[in-house]
Protein backbone atom coordinates (compact mmCIF):
# COMPACT_ATOMS: atom_id res chain seq x y z
CA UNK A 1 0.00 0.00 0.00
CA UNK A 2 2.83 2.35 0.95
CA UNK A 3 4.57 1.68 -2.37
CA UNK A 4 1.35 2.45 -4.20
CA UNK A 5 0.97 5.80 -2.39
CA UNK A 6 4.59 6.75 -3.10
CA UNK A 7 4.20 5.81 -6.74
CA UNK A 8 1.01 7.87 -7.00
CA UNK A 9 2.75 10.85 -5.35
CA UNK A 10 5.70 10.54 -7.73
CA UNK A 11 3.31 10.31 -10.66
CA UNK A 12 1.42 13.40 -9.55
CA UNK A 13 4.68 15.29 -9.00
CA UNK A 14 5.97 14.34 -12.42
CA UNK A 15 2.62 15.13 -13.98
CA UNK A 16 2.70 18.65 -12.52
CA UNK A 17 6.36 19.36 -13.04
CA UNK A 18 6.80 18.44 -16.69
CA UNK A 19 4.30 20.97 -18.11
CA UNK A 20 5.69 23.59 -15.66
CA UNK A 21 9.25 23.25 -16.96
CA UNK A 22 8.00 23.14 -20.51
CA UNK A 23 6.09 26.40 -19.99
CA UNK A 24 9.17 28.04 -18.47
CA UNK A 25 11.30 27.02 -21.45
CA UNK A 26 8.62 28.25 -23.83
CA UNK A 27 8.43 31.60 -21.97
CA UNK A 28 12.20 31.98 -22.10
CA UNK A 29 12.21 31.22 -25.81
CA UNK A 30 9.51 33.84 -26.39
CA UNK A 31 11.45 36.39 -24.34
CA UNK A 32 14.65 35.72 -26.27
CA UNK A 33 12.79 35.92 -29.60
CA UNK A 34 11.26 39.27 -28.58
CA UNK A 35 14.69 40.61 -27.55
CA UNK A 36 16.25 39.63 -30.88
CA UNK A 37 13.32 41.18 -32.74
CA UNK A 38 13.90 44.50 -30.97
CA UNK A 39 17.64 44.31 -31.63
CA UNK A 40 16.79 43.80 -35.29
CA UNK A 41 14.48 46.82 -35.05
CA UNK A 42 17.30 48.90 -33.56
CA UNK A 43 19.63 47.82 -36.36
CA UNK A 44 17.00 48.68 -38.98
CA UNK A 45 16.42 52.17 -37.51
CA UNK A 46 20.16 52.77 -37.18
CA UNK A 47 20.67 51.88 -40.86
CA UNK A 48 17.84 54.18 -41.94
CA UNK A 49 19.32 57.07 -39.94
CA UNK A 50 22.76 56.42 -41.46
CA UNK A 51 21.45 56.50 -45.03
CA UNK A 52 18.42 58.78 -44.96
CA UNK A 53 18.89 61.46 -42.29
CA UNK A 54 18.98 64.98 -43.71
CA UNK A 55 22.65 65.41 -42.73
CA UNK A 56 25.54 62.99 -42.46
CA UNK A 57 25.73 61.50 -38.95
CA UNK A 58 28.63 60.51 -36.74
CA UNK A 59 27.98 56.80 -36.26
CA UNK A 60 30.10 56.53 -33.12
CA UNK A 61 28.23 59.40 -31.43
CA UNK A 62 24.92 57.96 -32.55
CA UNK A 63 25.66 54.60 -30.90
CA UNK A 64 26.96 56.29 -27.73
CA UNK A 65 23.75 58.33 -27.58
CA UNK A 66 21.69 55.14 -27.87
CA UNK A 67 23.73 53.51 -25.07
CA UNK A 68 23.35 56.57 -22.84
CA UNK A 69 19.61 56.68 -23.53
CA UNK A 70 19.28 53.04 -22.48
CA UNK A 71 21.23 53.58 -19.26
CA UNK A 72 19.50 56.87 -18.44
CA UNK A 73 16.15 55.06 -18.60
CA UNK A 74 17.29 52.91 -15.64
CA UNK A 75 18.26 55.50 -13.01
CA UNK A 76 20.22 58.78 -12.70
CA UNK A 77 23.49 57.05 -11.76
CA UNK A 78 23.93 54.43 -14.47
CA UNK A 79 25.95 55.81 -17.36
CA UNK A 80 28.48 55.03 -20.07
CA UNK A 81 31.99 56.36 -19.53
CA UNK A 82 33.98 56.88 -22.72
CA UNK A 83 37.75 56.35 -22.26
CA UNK A 84 38.47 60.00 -21.39
CA UNK A 85 35.63 60.18 -18.85
CA UNK A 86 36.73 56.89 -17.32
CA UNK A 87 40.24 58.27 -16.77
CA UNK A 88 38.77 61.45 -15.24
CA UNK A 89 36.77 59.34 -12.80
CA UNK A 90 39.88 57.38 -11.80
CA UNK A 91 41.72 60.66 -11.17
CA UNK A 92 38.89 61.82 -8.90
CA UNK A 93 39.14 58.74 -6.72
CA UNK A 94 42.89 59.38 -6.45
CA UNK A 95 42.14 62.87 -5.14
CA UNK A 96 43.21 65.28 -7.91
CA UNK A 97 41.40 66.38 -11.08
CA UNK A 98 40.46 69.42 -13.12
CA UNK A 99 37.07 71.13 -13.08
CA UNK A 100 34.65 73.11 -10.91
CA UNK A 101 34.51 70.94 -7.79
CA UNK A 102 30.87 69.79 -7.61
CA UNK A 103 29.16 66.44 -7.37
CA UNK A 104 26.06 66.39 -9.58
CA UNK A 105 23.14 64.19 -10.60
CA UNK A 106 20.15 64.56 -12.92
CA UNK A 107 16.64 65.40 -11.75
CA UNK A 108 13.66 66.37 -13.93
CA UNK A 109 15.98 66.97 -16.88
CA UNK A 110 18.20 69.46 -15.03
CA UNK A 111 21.59 69.02 -13.40
CA UNK A 112 21.21 68.99 -9.61
CA UNK A 113 24.09 69.80 -7.30
CA UNK A 114 24.52 67.09 -4.67
CA UNK A 115 27.27 69.05 -2.95
CA UNK A 116 30.09 71.49 -3.71
CA UNK A 117 33.51 70.23 -2.59
CA UNK A 118 35.32 72.28 0.05
CA UNK A 119 37.88 74.85 -1.17
CA UNK A 120 37.04 74.48 -4.86
CA UNK A 121 35.96 77.08 -7.44
CA UNK A 122 32.30 76.03 -7.13
CA UNK A 123 32.31 76.33 -3.33
CA UNK A 124 34.06 79.71 -3.45
CA UNK A 125 31.53 80.93 -6.05
CA UNK A 126 28.67 80.18 -3.66
CA UNK A 127 27.20 77.07 -5.33
CA UNK A 128 25.02 75.25 -2.78
CA UNK A 129 23.71 71.73 -2.27
CA UNK A 130 20.29 71.44 -3.91
CA UNK A 131 20.97 74.06 -6.61
CA UNK A 132 19.76 73.24 -10.12
CA UNK A 133 21.99 74.08 -13.09
CA UNK A 134 19.59 74.99 -15.90
CA UNK A 135 22.03 76.45 -18.46
CA UNK A 136 25.75 76.10 -19.17
CA UNK A 137 27.24 79.11 -20.95
CA UNK A 138 23.73 80.11 -21.99
CA UNK A 139 22.81 76.70 -23.41
CA UNK A 140 19.96 74.78 -21.79
CA UNK A 141 20.86 71.44 -20.23
CA UNK A 142 17.44 70.00 -21.14
CA UNK A 143 17.97 67.03 -23.44
CA UNK A 144 21.56 66.46 -22.34
CA UNK A 145 22.67 63.33 -20.54
CA UNK A 146 24.53 63.75 -17.27
CA UNK A 147 27.74 62.74 -19.04
CA UNK A 148 27.15 65.41 -21.72
CA UNK A 149 26.54 68.08 -19.07
CA UNK A 150 29.66 67.12 -17.13
CA UNK A 151 31.70 67.27 -20.36
CA UNK A 152 30.47 70.80 -20.99
CA UNK A 153 31.48 71.88 -17.49
CA UNK A 154 34.99 70.56 -17.97
CA UNK A 155 37.58 72.68 -19.69
CA UNK A 156 41.10 74.08 -19.54
CA UNK A 157 42.33 75.23 -16.13
CA UNK A 158 41.92 79.02 -15.90
CA UNK A 159 39.02 79.21 -18.36
CA UNK A 160 35.68 80.69 -17.37
CA UNK A 161 32.27 79.05 -17.38
CA UNK A 162 28.89 80.63 -16.63
CA UNK A 163 26.21 78.43 -15.14
CA UNK A 164 22.61 79.49 -14.59
CA UNK A 165 21.36 78.48 -11.15
CA UNK A 166 17.81 77.81 -10.00
CA UNK A 167 17.66 77.90 -6.22
CA UNK A 168 14.80 77.32 -3.81
CA UNK A 169 13.82 80.66 -2.32
CA UNK A 170 15.31 82.70 -5.17
CA UNK A 171 12.71 84.58 -7.23
CA UNK A 172 14.54 84.11 -10.54
CA UNK A 173 17.39 81.94 -11.86
CA UNK A 174 20.74 83.74 -11.73
CA UNK A 175 24.12 83.38 -13.42
CA UNK A 176 27.32 82.42 -11.65
CA UNK A 177 30.69 82.71 -13.39
CA UNK A 178 33.32 80.23 -12.24
CA UNK A 179 36.99 79.92 -13.21
CA UNK A 180 38.00 76.30 -13.73
CA UNK A 181 40.91 75.06 -11.68
CA UNK A 182 42.84 71.94 -10.78
CA UNK A 183 40.91 70.33 -7.95
CA UNK A 184 43.14 68.91 -5.24
CA UNK A 185 40.99 67.28 -2.61
CA UNK A 186 42.16 66.91 0.94
CA UNK A 187 39.98 64.05 2.01
CA UNK A 188 40.23 64.86 5.73
CA UNK A 189 40.91 68.03 7.71
CA UNK A 190 41.36 67.88 11.46
CA UNK A 191 41.50 70.56 14.12
CA UNK A 192 40.95 71.02 17.83
CA UNK A 193 38.09 73.10 19.23
CA UNK A 194 38.96 73.32 22.92
CA UNK A 195 39.08 69.72 24.14
CA UNK A 196 37.11 68.36 21.15
CA UNK A 197 38.54 67.01 17.90
CA UNK A 198 36.71 68.17 14.77
CA UNK A 199 37.31 65.79 11.85
CA UNK A 200 36.02 67.11 8.52
CA UNK A 201 35.72 64.40 5.85
CA UNK A 202 35.14 65.99 2.44
CA UNK A 203 35.08 62.89 0.23
CA UNK A 204 35.71 59.15 0.25
CA UNK A 205 38.68 58.55 -2.03
CA UNK A 206 41.74 56.33 -1.79
CA UNK A 207 43.32 58.64 0.82
CA UNK A 208 40.40 58.97 3.23
CA UNK A 209 41.05 56.26 5.83
CA UNK A 210 44.77 57.02 6.11
CA UNK A 211 44.04 60.77 6.35
CA UNK A 212 41.46 60.05 9.05
CA UNK A 213 43.98 58.10 11.11
CA UNK A 214 46.54 60.91 10.79
CA UNK A 215 43.94 63.56 11.67
CA UNK A 216 42.84 61.81 14.86
CA UNK A 217 46.45 61.29 15.92
CA UNK A 218 47.17 64.99 15.26
CA UNK A 219 44.31 66.41 17.35
CA UNK A 220 44.77 63.84 20.11
CA UNK A 221 48.42 64.89 20.47
CA UNK A 222 47.43 68.57 20.38
CA UNK A 223 44.72 68.27 23.07
CA UNK A 224 46.27 65.48 25.11
CA UNK A 225 44.91 61.94 25.08
CA UNK A 226 43.56 62.20 28.64
CA UNK A 227 41.81 65.52 27.93
CA UNK A 228 39.92 64.70 24.72
CA UNK A 229 36.17 64.98 25.43
CA UNK A 230 35.12 63.45 22.11
CA UNK A 231 35.18 63.81 18.34
CA UNK A 232 32.90 65.46 15.79
CA UNK A 233 32.85 63.73 12.40
CA UNK A 234 31.69 66.39 9.93
CA UNK A 235 30.14 64.78 6.83
CA UNK A 236 28.16 67.81 5.67
CA UNK A 237 28.22 68.33 1.90
CA UNK A 238 30.23 65.14 1.47
CA UNK A 239 28.87 63.62 -1.77
CA UNK A 240 30.33 60.17 -1.13
CA UNK A 241 32.84 58.15 -3.12
CA UNK A 242 34.32 54.69 -2.66
CA UNK A 243 32.23 52.10 -0.83
CA UNK A 244 35.38 50.42 0.49
CA UNK A 245 36.47 53.66 2.15
CA UNK A 246 33.05 54.20 3.73
CA UNK A 247 33.32 50.72 5.25
CA UNK A 248 36.85 51.36 6.54
CA UNK A 249 35.90 54.71 8.07
CA UNK A 250 32.90 53.13 9.82
CA UNK A 251 35.10 50.27 11.01
CA UNK A 252 37.57 52.79 12.43
CA UNK A 253 35.04 53.66 15.16
CA UNK A 254 33.38 50.26 15.70
CA UNK A 255 34.71 47.25 17.59
CA UNK A 256 32.07 44.82 16.38
CA UNK A 257 28.72 44.50 14.65
CA UNK A 258 27.48 44.97 11.11
CA UNK A 259 28.50 48.02 9.11
CA UNK A 260 26.47 47.65 5.92
CA UNK A 261 24.84 45.06 3.70
CA UNK A 262 24.33 45.15 -0.05
CA UNK A 263 21.63 43.31 -1.97
CA UNK A 264 21.30 43.06 -5.72
CA UNK A 265 18.99 41.12 -8.01
CA UNK A 266 20.45 37.76 -6.93
CA UNK A 267 19.73 37.54 -3.20
CA UNK A 268 22.23 34.68 -2.88
CA UNK A 269 24.98 37.20 -3.64
CA UNK A 270 23.94 39.56 -0.85
CA UNK A 271 26.91 40.67 1.24
CA UNK A 272 27.23 41.75 4.85
CA UNK A 273 30.29 43.54 6.18
CA UNK A 274 31.13 43.40 9.88
CA UNK A 275 33.47 45.57 11.94
CA UNK A 276 36.82 44.34 13.21
CA UNK A 277 38.14 45.09 16.74
CA UNK A 278 39.76 48.50 17.18
CA UNK A 279 38.44 52.04 17.72
CA UNK A 280 40.55 54.99 16.58
CA UNK A 281 38.61 57.26 18.96
CA UNK A 282 39.40 55.05 21.95
CA UNK A 283 35.73 54.82 22.90
CA UNK A 284 35.34 58.61 23.22
CA UNK A 285 31.86 60.02 22.41
CA UNK A 286 31.15 60.79 18.75
CA UNK A 287 28.82 63.27 17.09
CA UNK A 288 28.32 62.99 13.32
CA UNK A 289 27.17 66.08 11.39
CA UNK A 290 25.11 65.56 8.22
CA UNK A 291 22.98 67.72 5.92
CA UNK A 292 21.19 67.58 2.57
CA UNK A 293 24.55 67.36 0.78
CA UNK A 294 25.66 64.22 2.64
CA UNK A 295 25.20 61.36 0.20
CA UNK A 296 26.08 57.75 -0.58
CA UNK A 297 29.25 56.76 1.33
CA UNK A 298 28.54 59.50 3.90
CA UNK A 299 25.15 57.94 4.56
CA UNK A 300 26.72 54.49 4.99
CA UNK A 301 28.98 55.87 7.75
CA UNK A 302 26.21 57.87 9.43
CA UNK A 303 23.77 54.94 9.24
CA UNK A 304 26.26 52.42 10.63
CA UNK A 305 27.30 54.61 13.57
CA UNK A 306 23.68 55.54 14.28
CA UNK A 307 22.33 51.98 14.22
CA UNK A 308 25.21 50.66 16.33
CA UNK A 309 24.58 53.43 18.91
CA UNK A 310 28.16 54.59 18.48
CA UNK A 311 27.42 58.20 17.55
CA UNK A 312 24.73 60.85 17.86
CA UNK A 313 23.69 62.12 14.43
CA UNK A 314 23.09 65.88 14.34
CA UNK A 315 22.00 68.18 11.51
CA UNK A 316 19.50 67.81 8.67
CA UNK A 317 18.22 64.80 6.71
CA UNK A 318 20.78 63.46 4.24
CA UNK A 319 20.48 63.21 0.45
CA UNK A 320 19.12 59.65 0.21
CA UNK A 321 21.36 57.86 -2.32
CA UNK A 322 21.15 54.23 -1.25
CA UNK A 323 22.35 52.46 -4.39
CA UNK A 324 25.69 50.89 -5.30
CA UNK A 325 27.32 51.44 -8.69
CA UNK A 326 29.80 48.99 -10.17
CA UNK A 327 32.37 50.14 -12.73
CA UNK A 328 32.64 47.54 -15.50
CA UNK A 329 35.64 47.93 -17.83
CA UNK A 330 34.92 47.62 -21.54
CA UNK A 331 38.48 47.01 -22.71
CA UNK A 332 39.83 50.11 -24.47
CA UNK A 333 36.30 51.46 -25.01
CA UNK A 334 35.90 52.95 -21.53
CA UNK A 335 33.52 51.54 -18.94
CA UNK A 336 29.91 51.36 -17.89
CA UNK A 337 28.85 52.54 -14.44
CA UNK A 338 25.85 50.39 -13.58
CA UNK A 339 23.65 50.30 -10.50
CA UNK A 340 23.98 46.73 -9.25
CA UNK A 341 22.72 46.77 -5.65
CA UNK A 342 21.08 48.70 -2.84
CA UNK A 343 22.80 49.07 0.48
CA UNK A 344 21.18 48.70 3.89
CA UNK A 345 22.16 49.97 7.33
CA UNK A 346 22.74 47.43 10.15
CA UNK A 347 19.09 47.62 11.24
CA UNK A 348 17.97 46.73 7.69
CA UNK A 349 17.00 50.23 6.58
CA UNK A 350 17.25 51.13 2.92
CA UNK A 351 17.83 54.87 2.72
CA UNK A 352 17.21 55.09 -1.02
CA UNK A 353 15.22 58.30 -1.61
CA UNK A 354 14.64 58.57 2.17
CA UNK A 355 18.01 59.59 3.59
CA UNK A 356 19.32 59.34 7.13
CA UNK A 357 17.18 61.16 9.66
CA UNK A 358 19.36 62.83 12.33
CA UNK A 359 18.87 61.93 15.99
CA UNK A 360 18.74 65.66 16.69
CA UNK A 361 17.41 67.93 13.95
CA UNK A 362 19.45 71.14 13.79
CA UNK A 363 18.88 73.25 10.71
CA UNK A 364 21.69 75.58 9.69
CA UNK A 365 20.97 79.17 10.61
CA UNK A 366 22.68 82.50 11.02
CA UNK A 367 22.91 84.05 14.46
CA UNK A 368 22.89 87.84 14.70
CA UNK A 369 26.29 89.28 15.56
CA UNK A 370 26.81 91.12 18.84
CA UNK A 371 26.46 94.59 17.29
CA UNK A 372 23.15 93.55 15.69
CA UNK A 373 21.66 92.29 18.93
CA UNK A 374 19.44 94.38 21.16
CA UNK A 375 21.12 96.09 24.14
CA UNK A 376 21.39 93.75 27.10
CA UNK A 377 18.72 94.51 29.72
CA UNK A 378 19.62 92.12 32.51
CA UNK A 379 22.54 92.76 34.88
CA UNK A 380 24.49 90.34 37.05
CA UNK A 381 24.96 90.48 40.82
CA UNK A 382 28.57 91.55 40.32
CA UNK A 383 27.39 94.71 38.53
CA UNK A 384 25.19 95.85 41.38
CA UNK A 385 26.58 98.70 43.46
CA UNK A 386 27.80 97.55 46.84
CA UNK A 387 27.53 93.82 46.11
CA UNK A 388 29.65 91.40 48.16
CA UNK A 389 32.87 90.31 46.49
CA UNK A 390 34.07 86.72 46.10
CA UNK A 391 37.76 86.07 46.63
CA UNK A 392 39.11 83.27 44.43
CA UNK A 393 42.39 81.39 44.51
CA UNK A 394 44.73 81.67 41.52
CA UNK A 395 43.78 78.14 40.42
CA UNK A 396 40.07 78.95 40.69
CA UNK A 397 40.58 82.16 38.71
CA UNK A 398 42.45 80.25 35.99
CA UNK A 399 39.70 77.62 35.79
CA UNK A 400 37.03 80.31 35.55
CA UNK A 401 38.93 82.21 32.86
CA UNK A 402 39.44 79.05 30.81
CA UNK A 403 35.75 78.19 31.07
CA UNK A 404 34.73 81.73 30.06
CA UNK A 405 37.14 81.63 27.09
CA UNK A 406 35.64 78.32 25.96
CA UNK A 407 32.10 79.71 26.12
CA UNK A 408 33.10 82.87 24.23
CA UNK A 409 34.77 80.79 21.51
CA UNK A 410 31.65 78.61 21.16
CA UNK A 411 29.42 81.69 21.07
CA UNK A 412 31.51 83.14 18.22
CA UNK A 413 31.41 79.81 16.40
CA UNK A 414 27.63 79.70 16.84
CA UNK A 415 27.36 82.80 14.64
CA UNK A 416 29.56 81.23 11.96
CA UNK A 417 28.46 77.57 12.06
CA UNK A 418 25.41 76.88 14.22
CA UNK A 419 25.35 73.11 13.60
CA UNK A 420 28.99 72.64 14.57
CA UNK A 421 28.56 74.80 17.69
CA UNK A 422 25.57 72.68 18.68
CA UNK A 423 27.64 69.51 18.29
CA UNK A 424 30.41 70.97 20.45
CA UNK A 425 27.89 71.94 23.16
CA UNK A 426 26.47 68.42 23.03
CA UNK A 427 29.86 66.74 23.46
CA UNK A 428 30.81 69.10 26.28
CA UNK A 429 27.51 68.25 27.99
CA UNK A 430 28.24 64.52 27.64
CA UNK A 431 31.71 65.04 29.10
CA UNK A 432 30.27 66.87 32.11
CA UNK A 433 27.73 64.07 32.59
CA UNK A 434 30.43 61.40 32.39
CA UNK A 435 32.57 63.20 34.98
CA UNK A 436 29.57 63.24 37.31
CA UNK A 437 29.04 59.50 36.89
CA UNK A 438 32.70 58.60 37.56
Task: Describe the structure using short key phrases.
single chain; 438 residues; alpha+beta; Pdz3 Domain; 2-enoyl-CoA Hydratase, Chain A, domain 1; 6-stranded antiparallel sheet; 6-stranded mixed sheet; elongated
Outline the structure in words.
The structure is a single chain. 38% of the residues lie in helices and 23% in strands. It has ten helices and 19 strands. The chain has 438 residues and is of the alpha+beta class. Strands 3, 4, 5, 6, 7 and 8 form a six-stranded antiparallel beta sheet that branches. A six-stranded mixed beta sheet has the order 10-11-12-15-16-19, with helices on both faces.
Largest sheet: 6 strands, antiparallel
Discrete helix count = 10
Counting DSSP E segments of at least 2 residues, the number of strands comes to: 19
Derived structural class: alpha+beta
Which CATH C-level class of the domain at 188-361 is it? Alpha Beta
**Low-confidence residue ranges:** 1-22
Summarize the amount of helix as a percent range. Answer: 25-40%
Amino acid sequence: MRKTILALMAGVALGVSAPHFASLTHAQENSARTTYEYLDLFGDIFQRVRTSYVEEVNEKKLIEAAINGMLASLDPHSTYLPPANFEDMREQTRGEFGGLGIEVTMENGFVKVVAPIDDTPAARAGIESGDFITHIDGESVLGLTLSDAVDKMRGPVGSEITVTIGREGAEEPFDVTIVRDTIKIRAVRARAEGNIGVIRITTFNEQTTENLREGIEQVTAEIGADKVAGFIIDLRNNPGGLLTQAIEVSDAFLDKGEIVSTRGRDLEQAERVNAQPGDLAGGKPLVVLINEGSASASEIVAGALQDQRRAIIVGAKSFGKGSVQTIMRLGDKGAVKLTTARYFTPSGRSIQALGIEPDILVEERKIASADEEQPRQLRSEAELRGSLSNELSEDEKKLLEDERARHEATAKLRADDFQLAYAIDLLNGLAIYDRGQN
